[in-house]
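Consider this pair:
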Amino acid sequence: MKALVYSGPSSIAWQEVPDPVIQRPTDAIVTMETTTICGTDLHILKGDVPTVQPGRILGHEGVGVVTQVGDAVTEIAVGDRVIVSCISACGKCGYCLEGMYSHCLAEEGASGIGWILGHLIDGTQAEHVRVPFAETSLHKVPVGVAPEEAAMISDILPTGHEIGIRYGAVEPGDVVAVIGAGPVGLAAMTTAALYGPSRVIAIDIDANRVEQAKRFGASDGVVSSDADWREQVIALTDGLGVDVAIEAVGIPATWDMSLAMVRPGGHVANVGVHGKPVSFPLETAWIQNLTITTGLVNTDTSRMLIKLLAQGRLDVAGFISHRFSLHDIMDAYDTFGRAAETKALKVILTA
């Protein structure tokens, strides 16, 4: 088969590799129909995730059809169309029993990290993929849901919802600011509506993305390159700052912005993948009664989000900005990597 192989920072290639095989009784082999590129993949290419070794097939999102299952798999069958979760969870270890699938302690995730596809084992940007713990790491696609829309459940929707909205403890009437109007930031804006905030402020350096964010639930927008961006944000509150600041970029500047706009007693929810240290001015922040959260998505809300998607309660079609053949994945990476220029959100790759 062919797959997208990482060879080191700034080096990837679409090349021939061996087909995956069942290694454990809990495995499934999935033939990919649709996959996509995540911002985390770009972080890998930058060298921000050194645990990804050369030779790794990238990708942790997508939808496909099950073509083979291990002897222990009974709830997933050959022929099922499934969503591949970005988190592989055994469902039995201590963390899984607590619902913290992101820190699954199963042997394949020996580091205690549930994100193993495209990270510690080969991923979904391929014609076929081996999925460990199939019964707890695959979700059947509901009838009537398009595969490319179902793929949004793999990562961005649960990440924006869980790490942004739930960890940020968004409540009815809150003013929420989301820094970064990329796919995960937009997913946070979309799922924020489930909790009834009074305002959702989209903040991005790209004026086009700020404007587009209003299609995803943002009530207001601020361009972060404006010299008075903070004053604009504060003016949209009661003058004290936002109740919840969601950082969805992953660079020191946007982390600093989140601290600069949150009110005393507010929440800062960090969603972005950071490749460099950030500063935290505890000498001035200690008195603000802030709650600061970080996290890797658990995907424990994926089944709920699938139900909402099937009922038409989540409109995700707008996340898809570009479509490519899977064999044109190098062009897709180029387009996604130049998002400010190409206006890319999620790029869909179809086999």
Remarks:
- DSSP finds 13 helices and 16 strands in the chain.
- Residues 160-293 form a domain with the Rossmann fold fold (CATH 3.40.50.720).
